[in-house]
């Protein structure tokens, strides 16, 4: 008995393979799961949207509706600048002076350690998140990369 041909159990354009008399397996297309590939995967289950973004499930994909001030596939990029007031506890925001590809605004303070709310400069590549930046009296550090970013003056 050719179960795949006679019954066509696999759904959503999945491939069916006969594995014995009356038995089969389905090879699901990306975005589907289940014995017969009848269940669409919900890519939003992994919470891919950051910074308060709202996830909309699609077939084998998702879309993040980003809140104002954020953009990117996962709302991971912030358009905030110093004018948006990203620093807390009396920190001073300094716009980056490095080349545009790596420029970032950072919060500085006179006490260490100083951690700020998470936001990313739109021009940063790779993105520099201020929650990973702290001051050690007069030096700025990126703890995710173990880099000294510069010296405060």
TrEMBL record:
Keyword annotations: Calcium, Disulfide bond, EGF-like domain, Glycoprotein, Repeat, Signal
The keyword Hydrolase is assigned to this record: no
PROSITE patterns listed in its UniProt record: ASX_HYDROXYL, EGF_1, EGF_2, EGF_3, EGF_CA
Domain EGF-like: 1-38, 40-76
Pfam families on file: EGF (PF00008)
PANTHER family registered for this protein in UniProt: CRUMBS FAMILY MEMBER, DROSOPHILA CRUMBS HOMOLOG
The protein, known as: Delta-like protein 4
Taxonomic source organism: Takifugu flavidus (sansaifugu)
